Amino acid sequence: MRDRDGHGAAGRRGLRLSGRHSRALGPRSWALSLIIAAALALLVATATTSLPYLVSSPTTDPHFGKLNHCLALALPGPRLGWAVAPDGSQAATFGARAVALCGAQKSPTVFSAPGAVAITFDGQGRLWVATHEQLLREEAGQLVPVGDFAPVALAGHSEGVIALDTAGQMLSISAQGQVLGQAKLPFPGALSVGPEGLLAAVVVDGGLIAYEARSLTLLRAEAPCQVEGLWWLDAPERVLLACEGQQPALSVDLRTGQREEAPRRWRTSARRLPGRPLYVHGCEGLPCTAPSP
């Protein structure tokens, strides 16, 4: 009996000991589970964070991948800027001494352009280049001088380009070199042209100035808020403005001045192609597809 009692007591003690071990192993198991879950979460987060980069990689871009592959081979870098034709069929990039152009042709065209500071395409798909000394236009596979005006910003319109210099002088110039219009800004700003190349806008010192693109006829000059950014919308006369601070964004009709509030949120800085409802931003000095604002 003593043996049975002893065995039974030992068995009960063993059971109690096993219970204590079970209770002790429970938190360890939970801790291990939490560690595994955290590791899996980190893996998922890393994969998710990497996905946009892979999607927006220049040579795998859904709209500009082939053009970017061509441009990257033609001008390995460093690249200082880019431009896309209104219909998206051509793209160009430039460095300190050269401009590369790619399109439907199998091989790229590389132009010598020392001191290049800006490039753009006009409504007819002609490439324009601004250098420290002059304005150039592509013609028959060559860059030909258009004048001694030396702009620092370019934006193509339906018949030519708008060129803006460091003094705030702005000219609208036709493909034949004719001055179609001119305007004066207090100092340079962020110049852009909207859908169909009809209207132009400049964000300068927190304000907005809008023009007819071809003639540079003034439409309005105002500061509906402290403007931090501008996106052209699908309607040729409408832009979306990002405002400083906690103010909502504004959708503005450049002809009538009508305004509508839009949700305040982070938006990718991007240009809308004049000939397609497609937004583009720079990645590694090349054009990549951007989300709609």
TrEMBL record:
Keyword Transmembrane: yes
Keywords carried by this UniProt record: Membrane, Transmembrane, Transmembrane helix
Segments traversing the membrane: 30-55
Name of the protein this chain belongs to: Lipoprotein
Origin species: Hyalangium rubrum
